């Protein structure tokens, strides 16, 4: 009998082993399918990223073309201004040479050159007047008649000299010769050949003696009037004949011209300065535009990666839910099979690693669903400082300047990750130096228009907790500053870095509505500055410290388009004592509730489903039965999160992958009347 009993037990054990082996085969097949789907998703992601990168390159090429065109226009305009300035300089030089030549000519000309005013008084006379025995100083301000023979003053006429040579007839009265011309506003002036000199007897009578002849030839040239002395065969100088003008107007015109020239220089100079200023302003605007364009391109790239990551996360979390959920259920049947338990443990470890990888992808894409809450960043900073003192080389000094007790909205684990990542990078930058300094500072700051941080002009005004992590290392090359937050960018050797560290940091900060900027110099090192909005309120959290799984006997309706996930959730809840009905169609689910609205005590629905999403299904169900509690379950969705779940009417948001503890605790809490704005009880 004992043998038969033993045989019967062995037969049962063999059946259990066969069943477990069958389930394990199913798990292996599912893993193989998962791997294939993951490879396909990876190929699709690469294709989308390549397409988006090509579009961005085309946009960058168009922008470069516009910039080159604008630079060419600025160059042409600059050359035109330079040519205008050169032409103006030549004209000024020519005018100065002309003025100098004129002054030299007046000073050296043998003719008498003078200027009189409208009343006939001398205002200028050159040194040639000394030939008449006067000095310029004597005549200045005196009337023109001073040098005219008094008895001939009334006989001065306007006789015209028609040619360079004239025959003058003998007359009873002294002969008077004038040169008269009118041009514009010129005064009609002339030189009387009978001029009164200091030695008037010699010059005057000498001339009269020659002029007593029947005919006298007077030659007029540019140097004066002459007559030939037959006795001595010498040429006698009797006066100066020329075009005598009042050159005040000309001098006035010259002054006007000089003033106009100066005004033109001033205007050109002002215009040039204005153009230079405009060009400077344009250059600054162009630099700002290029900077904003780079930030926009970076944001678009991150948005594209985030969108793809969100889609992958949803599908991948569904797969992980199936794997991890059924592995968790299989542990209940593997207590006596050590090898099976070890295999299941390895699967569970790998699945959880995949879950953490998805969290990282969502984090650097700024789509993490980690819960954030008010916390004191200074407490996390102090914990990190204690840890750093025992992990980084002793050659690196650590400076603690944490002076803030302000609260921020963040996830404690993620904030710890920010500190450790940046501090580790700082230590790595100083690892080959004899000594270095790692400084972590924190302070409260009230930002307004008067103290907006450089590099973050768009930051909202308000109170912030500002965290600075700096080192005295070798710095970051300028060419890499725009790339350090991109996923998978790293300067470390292969095997020493994934390139996700700063991407994750950037995503966490953005997910907390914060800002981050970096400055780096090869001489002084690198400094990261983080701005977290400060908060003062606290949020009460409901904690469940029970170690056993909550149970119940209520009726639960599970709606998920993935049959394996619906099956998994149903099994977990059935093990907890609940009665579970499931369907893979949201339309069928709505129809069942419409027919029997009192048949269920709780509905668990997936978010992303064909025909009708969980976001739309929940309000439809509540229209039929307003008091029916609903839990929305999702691997990831950009349309719903813990802040928008209330709009659907659902009581809670359950994130995949689903485990027994989280699912059973949330279901029991909801059935007991609790409502969660977060994801976990």
Q: Please, could you describe this protein's structure?
A:
This protein is an alpha/beta fold and 681 residues long. The chain folds into 4 domains: 208 residues, no CATH class; 96 residues, no CATH class; 165 residues, 2-Layer Sandwich (Heat Shock Protein 90); 117 residues, 3-Layer(aba) Sandwich (Rossmann fold), CATH 3.40.50. The protein contains 13 helices and 18 strands. The strands form 4 sheets. Strands 7, 8, 9, 10, 11, 12 and 13 form a 7-stranded mixed sheet that branches. α12 links the parallel β17 and β18. α1 packs antiparallel against α4 and α7 runs antiparallel to α8. The two termini are 54 Å apart. The relative contact order is 0.06. About 14% of the residues have low confidence.
How many domains make up the 3D coordinates? Answer: 4
Question: What share of residues is helical?
Answer: 40-55%
Flag low-confidence runs.
156-228, 232-248, 539-546
Give average pLDDT, whole number: 74
EC number: 2.7.13.3
GO molecular function: ATP binding; phosphorelay sensor kinase activity
Catalytic activity: ATP + protein L-histidine = ADP + protein N-phospho-L-histidine
Keywords: ATP-binding, Coiled coil, Kinase, Nucleotide-binding, Phosphoprotein, Transferase, Two-component regulatory system
Structure described in brief:
By secondary structure, the chain is of the alpha/beta class.
Question: Which helices and strands, and how do they pair?
Answer:
Blueprint: H1 2-108, E1 114-116, E2 122-125, H2 136-139, E3 165-169, H3 200-211, E4 215-221, E5 224-229, E6 234-239, H4 248-331, H5 338-364, E7 373-376, H6 377-389, E8 396-402, E9 407-410, H7 412-429, E10 436-447, E11 462-471, H8 501-511, E12 515-521, E13 525-535, E14 555-559, H9 563-575, E15 579-583, H10 586-595, E16 602-606, H11 614-624, E17 630-634, H12 645-648, E18 652-655, H13 660-671
Parallel strand pairs: 8-10, 14-15, 14-16, 16-17, 17-18
Antiparallel strand pairs: 1-2, 3-4, 4-5, 5-6, 7-9, 9-13, 10-11, 11-13, 12-13
């Amino acid at each position: 009998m004992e043998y038969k009993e033993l045989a019967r037990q062995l037969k049962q054990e063999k059946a259990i082993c066969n069943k477990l082996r069958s389930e394990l085969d199913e798990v292996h097949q599912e893993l193989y399918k998962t791997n294939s789907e993951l490879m396909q998703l990876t190929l699709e992601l690469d294709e989308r990223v390549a397409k988006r990168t090509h579009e961005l390159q085309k946009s960058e090429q168009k922008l470069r073309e516009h910039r080159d065109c604008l630079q060419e226009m600025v160059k042409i305009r600059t050359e035109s201004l330079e040519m205008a300035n050169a032409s103006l300089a030549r004209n000024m030089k020519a005018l100065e040479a002309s003025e100098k030549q004129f002054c030299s000519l007046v000073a050296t000309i043998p003719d008498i050159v003078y200027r009189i005013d409208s009343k006939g008084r001398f205002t200028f006379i050159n040194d040639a007047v000394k030939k008449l025995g006067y000095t310029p100083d004597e005549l200045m301000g005196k009337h023109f008649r001073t040098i005219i023979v008094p008895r001939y003053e009334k006989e001065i006429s306007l006789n015209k000299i028609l040619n360079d040579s004239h025959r003058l007839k003998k007359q009873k009265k002294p002969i008077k010769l004038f040169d008269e011309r009118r041009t514009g506003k010129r005064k009609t002036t002339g030189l009387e050949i009978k001029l009164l000199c200091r030695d008037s007897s010699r010059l005057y009578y000498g001339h009269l003696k020659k002029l007593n002849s029947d005919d006298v030839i007077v030659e007029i040239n540019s140097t004066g009037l002459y007559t030939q002395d037959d006795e001595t065969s010498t040429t006698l100088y009797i006066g100066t004949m020329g075009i005598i003008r009042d050159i005040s107007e000309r001098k006035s015109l010259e002054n006007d011209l000089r003033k106009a020239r100066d005004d033109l220089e001033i205007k050109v100079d002002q215009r040039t300065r204005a153009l230079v200023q405009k060009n400077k302003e344009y250059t600054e605007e162009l630099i700002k535009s290029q900077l904003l364009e780079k930030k926009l391109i970076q944001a678009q790239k991150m948005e594209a990666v985030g969108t793809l990551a969100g889609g992958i996360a949803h599908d991948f979390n569904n797969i992980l839910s199936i794997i991890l959920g059924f592995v968790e259920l299989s542990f209940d049947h593997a207590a006596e099979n050590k090898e099976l338990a070890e295999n299941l443990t390895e699967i569970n470890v790998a699945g959880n690693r995949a879950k953490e990888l998805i969290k990282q992808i969502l984090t650097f894409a700024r789509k993490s669903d980690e819960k954030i809450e008010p916390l004191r960043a200074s407490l996390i900073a102090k914990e990190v400082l204690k840890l750093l003192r025992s992990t980084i080389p002793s050659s690196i000094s650590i400076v603690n300047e944490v002076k803030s007790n302000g609260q921020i909205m963040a996830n404690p684990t993620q904030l710890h990750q920010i500190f450790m990542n940046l501090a580790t990078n700082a230590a790595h930058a100083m690892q080959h130096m004899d000594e270095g300094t790692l400084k972590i500072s924190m302070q409260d700051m009230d930002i307004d228009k008067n103290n907006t941080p450089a590099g973050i002009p768009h930051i909202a005004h308000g109170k912030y907790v500002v965290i600075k992590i700096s080192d005295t290392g070798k710095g970051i090359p300028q060419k890499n500053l725009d790339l350090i937050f991109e996923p998978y960018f790293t300067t470390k050797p292969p095997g020493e870095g994934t390139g996700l560290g700063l991407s994750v940091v950037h995503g966490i900060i953005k997910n907390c509505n914060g800002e981050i900027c970096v400055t780096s110099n090869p001489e002084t090192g690198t400094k990261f500055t983080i701005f977290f909005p400060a908060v003062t309120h606290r949020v009460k959290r409901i904690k469940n410290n029970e170690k056993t799984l909550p149970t119940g006997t209520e009726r639960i309706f599970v709606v998920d388009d993935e049959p394996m996930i619906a099956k998994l959730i149903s099994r977990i809840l059935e093990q907890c004592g609940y009665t579970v009905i499931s369907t893979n169609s949201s339309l069928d689910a709505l129809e069942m509730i419409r027919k029997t609205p009192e048949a269920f005590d709780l509905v668990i629905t997936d978010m992303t489903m064909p025909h009708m999403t969980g976001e739309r299904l929940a309000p439809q169900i509540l229209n039929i039965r307003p008091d029916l509690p609903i839990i929305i379950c999702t691997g990831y969705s950009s349309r719903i999160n813990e802040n928008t779940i209330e709009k659907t009417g659902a009581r809670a948001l359950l994130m995949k992958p689903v485990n027994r503890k989280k699912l059973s605790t949330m279901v029991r809490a909801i059935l007991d009347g609790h409502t969660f704005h977060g994801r976990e009880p």
